[in-house]
Amino acid sequence: MPRTIATVTFLVRAYDEAIAWFTDALGFTLVADTPLPDGKRWVVVAPPGSGARLLLAEAATPEQAARIGDQTGGRVFLFLETDDFDRDHAAMRERGVRFHEAPRREAYGTVAVFEDLYGNMWDLIEPAG
């Protein structure tokens, strides 16, 4: 079997606020929400049709809480790829997603930086050609 990165941990303040934001603002699907011991939950979200998923992990220590919203030191953290930039950009703006720039055309595609509910930076990108 080929190896793939399937799931990435994403630190959150609270499970339910993160589930709501990812499903409402980005249109992600709630893949799993399973109770675990000690009040933890196995919560997974993903864009429809995507192989990659995010494990929403509620911060359990002050060190983890300090990383919420700055998981990559201010750099773009994740890249949300689309086959229709204009459609998704308009839908995300309508749902209140905050973009940091107007869409721009680059050699690799159409892109705009947006932030998630905690301030992590993402690229919405439609690859070129």
Give structural notes:
It is a single chain. With 129 residues, the chain is of the alpha+beta class. Helix content is 20%, strand content 39%. The chain has three helices and nine strands; from the N terminus they run βαβββαβαββββ. The strands form two sheets. Strands 5, 6, 7, 8 and 9 form a five-stranded mixed β-sheet that branches. The chain has a four-stranded mixed β-sheet with strand order 1-4-3-2. The longest helix has 10 residues, at 15-24. The protein is globular and about 45 Å long.
The amount of helix comes to: 10-25%
Q: Quick one: overall form? A: globular
Number of helices: 3
Largest sheet: 5 strands, mixed
The low-pLDDT segments are: none
Number of beta-strand segments:
9
Q: Roughly what fraction of the amino acids lie in strands?
A: 35-45%
* Helical/strand content category: alpha+beta
Whole-angstrom Rg: 15 Å
End-to-end separation in angstroms reads 29 Å
What is the H-and-E element order? Answer: EHEEEHEHEEEE
On the 0 to 100 scale, the average pLDDT is: 96
SSE blueprint:
Layout: E1 7-12, H1 15-24, E2 29-35, E3 41-46, E4 53-58, H2 62-67, E5 76-81, H3 85-94, E6 98-99, E7 104-106, E8 109-115, E9 121-127
Parallel strand pairs: 1-4, 5-9
Antiparallel strand pairs: 2-3, 3-4, 6-8, 7-8, 8-9
Name a few traits of the molecule.
single chain; 129 residues; alpha+beta; 4-stranded mixed sheet; 3 helices; 20% helix
Short summary of the structure?
With 129 residues, the chain is an alpha+beta fold.
